[in-house]
Amino acid sequence: MALRSRYDPYREITSLREQMNRLWDFLRPAFGWRGGNWGEAFTPRVDIYQTEDEVIVTAEIPGLESKDDVEVTVTEDTITLRGEIKRDASYTQEGVYHAERYYGSFSRTFSLPAEVKPEEAQATYRNGVLEVRLPKTEAGRRRWVKVPIQ
Questions:
Q1: pLDDT for position 28
Q2: Most C-beta atoms within 10 A of its C-beta, which of 34, 85, 114, 116?
Q3: Which pTM was predicted?
């Protein structure tokens, strides 16, 4: 039996953005740009999955100077990640020969696949990866009951 996943209205927009980025990467050399992503927005890559007892959110956010550069807010059914990847103060566009790293502010909000307890959320940041563990409420836990057939 297949479980129905929640509709994510941002999935199609994200797909379109990724297609436009690929097109831009293809066309950019024709205009003489040798750099990479000057001025493009940083968007952390995020995975959301669940176990029987919790929802786990992992986000690739390399380059944070400290854990204070990212903020995580959680409701019973959503999570928001906000932060900023800062450039070195000596970095200027005039001196750029090649640039591929992303910088800037980001904010992403996701619907969660189950109801969670926001007050019990725990987050860690190691090696460029943010992990948030969200315990499920009793209502958020799926119960399986085998129904006898008569």
A1: 66
A2: 116
A3: 0.67
SS3 100: coil
- pLDDT value at position 66? 83
> Tokens 């959301």 sit at which residue?
48
Tell me if residue 22 falls in helix, strand or coil. helix
Count CB-CB contacts under 10 A for residue 73: 12
pLDDT in tens, 65-124: 888 899 999 999 999 999 988 877 666 667 777 777 777 888 999 999 999 999 999 999
**Domains of the chain and any CATH numbers:** 34-135 (2.60.40.790)
Extract long-range pairs of 40-45: CB within 8 Å, 24+ residues apart. Answer: 40/102, 41/102, 41/104, 41/106, 42/85, 42/102, 42/103, 42/104, 42/105, 42/106, 43/17, 43/102, 43/106, 43/108, 44/81, 44/106, 44/108, 44/130
Sign, CA dihedral 88-90-92-97, equals negative
